[in-house]
């Protein structure tokens, strides 16, 4: 069962999210926070699998909050006789329409994914499960806005990113280019004539080499490094 910490400014919204998630047999809400400071404290104390966060939390340092939660590790025992295992909470951000820049900043800070605030209940619960499993989630509209933001920020081809890009093999660059285009592992396997298992291995190595924790962060890297350039 995946545990969730709900972070939202509005009590009615927190109640709605709690009720929605609690109704799922495989999800449980272990706490609620109203601002970033509470989110960091409760994440540290409770060790949730997912922090479901409103991007417009009261704190003005929301991006720093996401960074602190994403980087902090909690040591959780897997059993009475087993050694403690490292646990990191994964942040899923709810983004209002017109605030896509928050999504871009959140991803750079380490968020595992983002959804529009008008997502359906089915989309939201599915996204929580995906992020809890260690994968990333986004939507085509927000991905397009993300790409536009990268272009607007003029971060394409930054020296630091180009150095990290140089650590990738030619095949890894091909796979990363395909990931940035929005292809699934199955589609990448078909187009590159390799197995889905091999694609998964390539993606895992890419994330390690570029210091990313989620697939969607690799998309950001692909544009910032200059490997992929947005169409004019």
Contiguous low-pLDDT stretches (5 residues minimum) are 74-85
Rg measurement, Å:
18 Å
N-to-C series of helices and strands: EHEHEHEEEHEHHHHHHH
Tell me, briefly, the overall form: globular
Mean pLDDT: 81
Q: Give the terminus-to-terminus CA distance.
A: 45 Å
Structural class: alpha/beta
Q: How much of the residues is beta strand, in percent?
A: 15-25%
Give a quick account of the main beta sheet: strands, pairing sense, barrel closure. 5 strands, parallel
Spatial strand arrangement across the major sheet: 2-1-3-6-7
Helicity level, as a percent range? 40-55%
User: What is the multimeric organization of the chains shown?
Assistant: single chain
Label this structure with key terms.
232 residues; alpha/beta; 52% helix
Description:
The strands form 2 sheets. The chain has a 5-stranded parallel β-sheet, sandwiched between helices. Strands 4-5 form a two-stranded antiparallel sheet. The model is unreliable at 74-85 (pLDDT under 50). Helices cover 52% and strands 16% of the residues. With 232 residues, the chain is α/β, with parallel strands linked by helices.
């Amino acid at each position: 069962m995946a545990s969730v910490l709900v972070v939202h400014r509005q009590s009615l919204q927190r109640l709605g999210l709690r009720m929605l998630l609690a109704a799922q047999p495989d999800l449980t809400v272990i706490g609620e926070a109203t601002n970033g400071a509470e989110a960091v404290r409760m994440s540290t104390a409770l060790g949730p699998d997912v922090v479901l966060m409103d991007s417009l939390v009261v704190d003005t340092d929301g991006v720093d909050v996401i960074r602190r939660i994403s980087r902090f590790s909690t040591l959780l025992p897997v059993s009475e006789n087993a050694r403690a295992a490292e646990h990191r909470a994964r942040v899923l951000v709810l983004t209002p329409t017109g605030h896509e820049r928050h999504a871009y900043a959140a991803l750079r800070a380490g968020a595992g994914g983002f959804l529009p605030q008008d997502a359906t209940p089915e989309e939201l619960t599915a996204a929580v499960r995906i992020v809890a499993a260690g994968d990333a989630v986004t939507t085509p509209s927000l991905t397009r806005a993300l790409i536009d933001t990268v272009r607007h920020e003029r971060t394409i081809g930054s020296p630091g990113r180009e150095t990290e890009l140089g650590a990738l093999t030619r095949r890894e660059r091909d796979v990363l280019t395909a990931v940035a285009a929005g292809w699934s592992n199955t589609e990448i396997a078909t187009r590159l004539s390799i197995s889905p298992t091999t694609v998964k291995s390539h993606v895992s190595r890419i994330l390690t080499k570029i210091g990313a924790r989620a697939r969607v962060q690799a998309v950001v890297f692909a544009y910032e490094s200059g490997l992929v350039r947005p169409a004019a």
